[in-house]
Amino acid sequence: MTSLAMAAGRPAATQDFWQPRRAAFWALAALLIYGGITIGNLTLEAFREYPVATGIGIPLWVAYAIPLFLLIRWLDLYAQNSGLGMTLAIAYGAFGATALALRANEGLDGIVEKVGGSNLASDWGPALEGPTTEEPLKLLGVILLVMIARTRFRTILPAVFFGALVGLGFQVSEDLIYTANAAHSWTGDSEIAPVTSTFFARGLLSGLFSHAAFTAIAAFGVGYFYTREREPLSNRVFIASAAFAVAVGLHFFWNSPILTDWLDGVAVLLAIAVKAAPIALAVALVWRTSVAEQARLLRSLASLHVSPNLITASERETLGALRARRRARKQAKRAGGKKLERAVTRLQREQMRLLVAIHQDGPDSPRACKHEEAIRRLRAETRSLLP
Asked: Comparing C-alpha atoms, which of 191, 172, 200 is closest to residue 58?
């Protein structure tokens, strides 16, 4: 029996992320406290020196992160979202990983300068330091989250999801620090100009190809390692190491002066596109692989535990397929207008919630029964709305 079939056939109580009896919980809490104090002090210092730039930068970067967060959440088809888990992931990235990386980068920067001189540190420091320190520190947060609530990570997709959230938190915190640094080094009198220039460079040009992408790629390996318990340990270690190496390599290439420092004008935009292409390709491959596995699990759950009256054969085939589900909603809109489209949307959502309830609590659990009743009501509603 494959690990996926075993997962579909043995519902188990799903843990939340509030686990004060586990050492990983307190390790994460300690890192959050340390990071909160460190980043908080840096923010207060930035407010005192550059009140306008900091006052604009904080809400700007938070607002910038909201659509990215919604995109990441939308991509989690299985909807295993935990409010506490998402909060911990983002907070660790924004505070714990960022604070640790600041100290690690300072130390590594000194080593690079001593070994290779100031020119090497200036030109290649970001490429040598960022991937070396930031990727393992961000991935540590994903590993701690898995250790805290192991049963929430039954497939690879949740690990990729939480990895992206850790990276997003790190990205926003780092962008704010870069905004303060830009204000510090700005030669003019304006405090708004360094904010807009940093936002353009780090937000609009490179935001989609930054830490959320890198950590999601690395977290794929963590998810594979923890969910493939029946595979040889050597295979699991190899996949986890390869995913981490890809994340580090892409981060190195993105931060390096290759192409971007040799060109100017429109050519720089083309160079950025060249650098972004392998990152986008790796993210797409990770996501498609994770979603394909998730879809197989959803179909197994539906076949084993759900009546065809609740999820039809054609609906089972589209479980986990965003395009097919969206196409079904569009067809409903053409057939019966917006009311039917909304009813089909609610039906799809309840079907997914039913499968989550079955997987987490069992097919006869009160939560599963509640969603079954909701699906029956929505079936009747959709039939009544058909012309």
From this structure: 172
With beta carbons less than 8 A apart as the criterion, state whether 131 and 156 touch.
Answer: no
* DSSP assignments along 4-48, one per residue: HHHHHH---PPP-S--TTSHHHHHHHHHHHHHHHHHHHHHHHHHH
Of all helices (H) and strands (E), which one includes residue 307?
none
Structure tokens at 1: 């029996």
Residue 191, phi then psi, degrees to nearest 5: -95, -10
Give the separation between CA 43 and CA 63, rounded to whole angstroms. 17
Which tokens hold the place of 244?
């981490």
pLDDT in tens, 300-327: 989 999 999 999 998 988 877 778 888 9
Least confident of 118-122, 126-130, 231-235: 118-122
Q: What is the pLDDT of residues 249-269, one digit of tens each?
A: 999 999 998 887 666 666 778
Cα dihedral sign, 134-229-280-57: negative
Residue 256: both structure tokens together: 């390096």
